[in-house]
Model the fold of this input.
Amino acid sequence: MLLRNLKRSSLAIILLCILVIVVFSAASILDISNLVEVEGAYLRWKYMTGGNVVSSPAICNDVLYVGSFDSKLYALNTSNGEKIWEFKTNHYIFSSPTVWEGIVYVGSMDAIFYAVNATDGTELWKFLAGSGIESSPLVQEDLVYFGALDHNVYALNASTGSLKWQYYTDPFVTGSPSAYGGMVYIGSYDGHSHGCLLALNASTGELVWKFDTSGEVGTLHPEVYEGTVYFGSWDNNTYAVNAKTGEKIWNYTTGGHVTGLAPRVYDGVVYVGSCDFGVYALNASRGDKIWLYETGGRVQSTPCICNGTIYIGSDDSNLYALDAATGMKCWNFTTGGGVDSSPLLDNGAIYVGSGDGYVYALEVRRKLINAPSQLLPLFVFVAFVFCVVVIWILVRRD
Done:
C-alpha cells in the first residue's frame, strides 16, 4: 500500500511539473508572438538656459535659435545642443525669433526689437519701441512686422530697421502677425475685458477691418487657411472669420481662455488648445467638435502637425503626441516645467522649450515590446483545471 501511494504521489508531482513547464513554455511563445512596435520620444540632448523658455524655436541651416527669460537669445547646434553663441538683451524674451536671409529677428521686454547676425550673434541694428515686446515677428517682402505693449503695430525695413509705418490702437498689441492677401492680421488687448483682431493693409498700415471679442487676442500668428482666419481669445472662444471682410463664420466655446497660442488647420480640421486643459479638434468649415483630449494642465502651446500626428505642450510639464484623426495619445514626454513653447519638427527631431529652463531635442523612434497576450489567461485556467482533475482522480483512487 505504501509503495502504491508513493508511486501515485510521484506521478502527481511529475504531472504537475510537466504542466508547469507547458504553461510557462506557452506563455513564452505567446509573448514572443505578441511583440509589437511602439512609438515614443527619447531625449537626444537638452540645453540649460538661465530662465523659463516660453519662446518657440526657429531653425535655419542646422542652427536652432530661441529666447529665454534670462534675457538671452541663443544659437544652438541642432545635432548636439552645443551653444554656438548667445546674445544678451536687457529683459526677458517672450518673443519667438524669426530667421530671414542670415538675420535673426526678436523682440524683448526691454522695448527693443533686435536684428542679429545669424552666424556670429553680433547686433546688426535695433529699433526702440515705446514698451515691452511680447509679439513674435513676421518677415514678408522685405518688411518685418511685430506689435508692442505701447499700443502699436510696426512695419520696419528688414535690412535696415527703418520705420515703414506704424498703426496705433487703444489696446496693447500682445499678438503676433500673420500675412495673407496683402493684409497683416494681429491680435490686441485693452488690459481689461476687450480684445480684437486687426486686419491692416500690409503696405500702408491702414485699418481694413477689426473684429471685437470680449477678451485678449494674444494669438501667436493667427492661422489663415483658404480665405478664413482662425484665432483664439480670452473669452474662451476659438473664432473663424472671413479673411477679407472680418465677418464671423463660426465660434466654438471651450471651458477656458484660448490665448498665448494659435490654432492650426490640417486636412480640414482645426486643432487648438485651451486653458481648460483640453486639446480640441474642430471642423474647419462649421466649428463642430470632432474630439477632445484632456491633459493635466493649461494648454498654451501652438500645435505642430506632421504625418497625421499632433505635437503640443501643456502646463502639466508634458509634450504630447496625439493621433490627428482620433485624438488618441501616441506618447508623452515629461519635462521639468510647463511646456508653453510651441514644438518644432526638423529632420526627424522635435525641438521645444520648457518652464524648467531647458531646450529639448527629442528623437521619435519605434521599439519592440511584449504586449500581454489575450490567450495567456485561458492557458492558465485550463492548466489549473487539469491539475485539479488529476489530483482529484488520484485522491479518489486512494
Summary: The chain has a mean pLDDT of 88. Residues 56 and 341 are 5 Å apart (CA to CA). The longest helix spans residues 2-33. The chain has two helices and 32 strands.
